[in-house]
Amino acid sequence: MTIIDGLVAEHRVFLMLFDQVECVLPGVKTVDEVALLCRLLEAPLHDHGGAETDLAYIALDHILHQQNRLTRLHHDHQEIDGLLKRVEGIKDLQKARTQLKAALDACRAHFNEEELTVFPLIEKALQHETLQILGKAWKSQSHLSQQSSMDRT
User: Fold this and answer.
1) Mean pLDDT across the chain, nearest whole number?
2) N or C: fewer beta carbons within 10 Å in the chain?
3) Alpha carbon separation from 64 to 71, 74, 107, 142 (Å, rounded)
4) CA angle, corner 71, sides to 66 and 72, nearest 5?
5) Following DSSP, what letter does each residue of 70-122 receive, concatenated?
6) What is the pLDDT of residues 36-73, one digit of tens each?
7) Which residues contact 99 (CB under 8 A, 6 or more apart)?
């Protein structure tokens, strides 16, 4: 498994989660429930973004930086984190739903951008063996995140 395989697989899981959240969102009765949905997504999305930055983006730092893409990708991660955090402060149920939907849409757009432009650059720039080594590091980091999350509960 390469780093790209792992990250794309995580994207697929997140996209299924987003679809499920959107299915239940119209029936959510309180802003506290909307905030809970956000909190359920925040930590795994933050961990995913960290893995992308630490393991995948770093490999293309010089290429992406020259094209101003690296700054944009980091900004996207921060924006998504901020969108989710803002939902928790909203007191109006409809506004909270709308804000959560906006966060999910931003995540989808970001994933699409990565898969169409960034990940192919990484695959082109790095040898397959390097991608596999990064995949092993991702898998190890992913398991540590899961253990860390379990330790918090």
Assistant:
1) 86
2) C
3) 8, 11, 20, 24
4) 110
5) HHHHHHHHHHHHHHHHHHTT---HHHHHHHHHHHHHHHHHHHHHIIIIIHHHH
6) 999 999 989 989 988 888 887 777 776 666 566 667 77
7) 83, 86, 87, 90
